[in-house]
Amino acid sequence: MADLVKFDEQAKIASVQGALGLRAQIEQVVDAIFEQGYHNICWLGIGGTWASAMQATVHMKERSACEVWAENAAEYLTTGNRRIGTGTVVITSSVTGSTQEVVDAVRKAREAGAIVIGFIDRPETELARMVDHLISYDENEQLKFFMVADRFMKNAGEFDEYDEQYAEFDAHLARALVEVEKRADAFAAEFASKHAEDPIHYFVGAGNQWGATYSYAMCYWEEQLWRKTKSITSGEFFHGMFEIVTKETPVTVYIGEDAQRPLSERVARFLPRITANSTVIDTRDYPLEGISERFRGNISHLVMHAVNNRIDVHMEIETRHPMEIRRYYRQLDY
Amino acid sequence: MADLVKFDEQAKIASVQGALGLRAQIEQVVDAIFEQGYHNICWLGIGGTWASAMQATVHMKERSACEVWAENAAEYLTTGNRRIGTGTVVITSSVTGSTQEVVDAVRKAREAGAIVIGFIDRPETELARMVDHLISYDENEQLKFFMVADRFMKNAGEFDEYDEQYAEFDAHLARALVEVEKRADAFAAEFASKHAEDPIHYFVGAGNQWGATYSYAMCYWEEQLWRKTKSITSGEFFHGMFEIVTKETPVTVYIGEDAQRPLSERVARFLPRITANSTVIDTRDYPLEGISERFRGNISHLVMHAVNNRIDVHMEIETRHPMEIRRYYRQLDY
């Protein structure tokens, strides 16, 4: 196989391995909160972070009896939320540490009495200084969130496979994900070539892939590639949106292996009847060596992310649109 | 003023007045549940009902300390939700009584021990027989939901203005809403004429208008008019989506008068800098005679709905697309 474009295998492996290496620190923070007691868990974010928050929430809902939800920072700042107070654990994340809504929402949550765990990549920022428990490490937001979620559930007796799962992840996950990227590359090149000029592209997903689907459409194709998209959940697809799908409409379904898999399978089965332009990306098509069948559903969103990494690289080439540039975001005041 | 097309003023007034007339029945049901005790409130739906569930949720979050959320029926049937059980009040709605996901989700919630209040328009259906408390009356789903929400909050000491608000609504709301339709008609005709052939139309909203914005884009323009749309919350607009807006992009912002108004105002202020094709629909532009300033925010979604009723009528004419027809929904098995 020829070398992949824009693909530093060692750097990618080191990045995931390093994120997994945060586990001792995460366990210390979560265990201390568990000892003190808490009564609900709020995943806080906006844009891409809010998408990750939705993913952590659906992951926990599958197992946990705890009150858990994804809070949008802009909504919290205006509508408020009386469920956030003493006994609330707020978990958030920011690469730059300067997303204004998140800074303001963390301040408000702390004033209400919540404990805040912050994954702030830049430890020198104001936000990093504001949180109760700071963990600074680049990228891997979803993996960080799921590690926190899993530790809370293990402590609550809701995730007995915790040690076994993380032993597998520590040993195999980083390698498995770069192998996904390699395996996906030829498909990704073809997909980008076919869809780079779509007037609008539809993305459908569910479960722990839904947040990732929403975020991929909005934070990658719209924000970074300036391509029009719409994302919809697999369940909602049949309640309105599908009426505009006809033979030419480009629709991509992401199928994961968590509990909502049947919802996406249903969309994938139906689509060929109404469009000749659909694509199915199924995490089950990727081997993930060393990862047990029963843990695959917990990382479906990471497999999808790995496939999307390759689509991004080829979309950037096909569109000749450098993904770093922004028209408006942080270019203008608004 | 010439008579409005497709506008039966007396029928519209009677419909809203009749829905308000359900209040004695709603109070009886809610008060009985309040006496027994409950610990959380789950608004359950899919598609349009889920959208109404999101609206009831954000309305309650503004005031209530109770755990309240919108549950998507398809997600509940797959991922499940351990927060639904004894002590949970589930509220749902169905016009036909035959939406499969809602039927199955209500069964599952009742098996888990929840009490279900169902607004099922057709009392002879299986779903109507399944719910613990049945209220049958045509349409007005959002108003029904808000009446339940408000009664729970009044009983909990979180909505002291309840009696005063509903005295105003009983006396003036039905008339105020038809006056909105009349006032909106000329604008709606112009809007439909301008936007009927848009390749895609963007709708932005927040607060108790967000569910309505999502539902209007999906259940009306997509499902009933076969027009492409994307909807986005006012807060999320600045976190990705706005990068694809340029001079020609048609974007409509719905501004309500609830706590999230500033989020939508911000979008409305910014849009003219990047598109010459934006529209602002602001509930504040409609007088609502007899309704006090402090209650206007609680019915912003109904004002928006009244404006949209007129847009629908004119879109149907402009597109020559009868809104009753469906390509796929309930036409095919899927």
Automatic annotation (TrEMBL), chains A, B:
Domain of life: Bacteria
InterPro entries reported for this sequence: FrlB_SIS (IPR035488), Fructosamine_deglycase_FrlB (IPR024713), SIS_dom (IPR001347), SIS_dom_sf (IPR046348)
Domain SIS per the UniProt entry, residue ranges: 29-158
Protein name per UniProt: SIS domain-containing protein
Source organism per UniProt: Collinsella ureilytica
